[in-house]
Amino acid sequence: MTFRGLRTLREADLILCEDTRRTGRLLAHYEIKNKLLAYHEHNEERLASELAGRAKNENLALVTDAGTPMVSDPGYRLLTACIEVGVEVEVLPGPSALVTALVTSGLPADMVVFTGFVPRKGRERTALFARIGCETATFVLFESPRRLAKTL
Question: Which position among 31, 55, 75, 114 has the lowest Cβ density within 10 Å, counted as fewest Cβ atoms?
Fold first, then answer.
């Protein structure tokens, strides 16, 4: 955690997170007792507009369990809702699996396509890999550790 990240969480009126238990453990470690609200793929569409409205008068922070908001994690709907109502959004960069994988791969980074998680279904998977085979860009994909060996 960066000092800036800790300050942001301490100053937040409400911390939005994928899993309140997981984020709660992180906050407890740093003795931060701010209010948490679960914000994840199952409720983000319903909550985004309401939270953007609240963000006009309150400091909201969005954290994800293991990644960066919007990069295969919740956040897109909230960000667009905030932009629509004129709320200024500040991004605090942190570790990124996407950037780390790209930089350490040794592959060209001048043209990169990020596809998110590999589709689970056969037809969608086949189409994705067929597309990759026809492109000259470097593709970065996320895959579940449980499915990685089979995908490779």
Answer: 31
